[in-house]
Amino acid sequence: MTAPALPAPHLHTVQVHDIAMACHEWRPELRGRTPTLFMVHATGFHARVWDQTIRRLPAWHIVAVDQRGHGRSGKSEISGWAPFGRDLAACAAALELNSLTGIGHSMGAHGLVQAAAYAPDRFERLMLIDPVIASPQAYHEPLPVFPDGMHPAARRRSRFASVQEMLERFGSRLPYRLFQPEALHDYCEHGVTASPDGQGVELACSPVTEASVYMTGRANVGIYASIRALDIPVQVVRAKLPTPERDPFDYSFSPTWPELASEFRHGTDVHLAEHSHFVPMEDPERTAQLIRAFVPH
What we know:
Blueprint: E1 10-16, E2 19-26, E3 36-40, H1 51-55, E4 61-65, H2 82-94, E5 100-105, H3 107-118, E6 123-129, E7 159-160, H4 163-170, H5 181-190, E8 192-194, E9 201-203, H6 207-215, H7 223-229, E10 233-238, E11 266-271, H8 279-282, H9 284-294
Parallel strand pairs: 3-4, 3-5, 5-6, 6-10, 10-11
Antiparallel strand pairs: 1-2, 2-4, 7-9, 8-9
C-alpha cells in the first residue's frame, strides 16, 4: 500500500540557548488530541530524513527538529554531546509541547535520553533507535586520538553543483545505497543550503561539525545518570551487531551496548539483526510499524 503524500511542515524557529533551532511541525490540528511524536535525527542528518516514516504515521501530531549544527538550525562549535539534550528540552519548553513520545535515532536518541531527564514532565516514553550509547565503563576510557587531530569525516566533500549531482554521487555509495530511494532524496534535498558564492549547494552540516560530533561521543559521562533517572517506558531498538573484522569507520553496525535496555527502569529491547544502523532511512515502513506498536493511540 502506498503511503499518503506528506504536506510541507510548518517551520518554527525558536531561540534555544546560543542558537536558533529549526523545528518542523506536521498536523498541528492534532496537537493535544494525540500523543506528540518528537523526532530527532542522527549525526550529519536533519529533521526531514523522517519524512518517509512520517508519511506512514498519518494519525499523529509530529514535531521533528534540526539539532545544533545541522539542517536549518544555528551553527556552533561542538565540544560534547550534553548540549544536544539541553537543546531538546529547551525546544520542547519553547513550543509548549507535552505528552511527548521521543523518537530518536543514533546521536539523536542519546540526546533524547538527557532531554527526558531534564524535562520529565514533558516526556511520556522514548523509542531509541540504535542509540549511540556505549557501556558505562566506556565513558571513563580515553577518547580516541586521530593522526591528524580530526575524524576522517572532516575530509568529506561538502559542495555539489546541484542536489541532483549529490544524489548521483551518493546513490552508489555506502551507507546511502542502503536507503530507500525516497529517503535518500529527502536527505539530499533538505540536507544542503545554497553556497555563499552562488555556485551550487553545500552540506548544511559541515564536515567539521560532523567530525566534531563523532570525536566527542564518549565524552558525555552524565548519560548514565540520565538513564537511571528516567521513570518512563523506554524501548531500545538495535541494529546488526558489529563483527570483529569490521572497518571501525563503517557505521552500518550498531553502536549500542547490547545490555542497554536493562539499565532503564522500564526498558525493553528489540533487535533488528537484519537491518543496518540506518533503520529509519533504510526501512521507513518498519520504523513506522515499530512506532505504531509502541505508542498508545
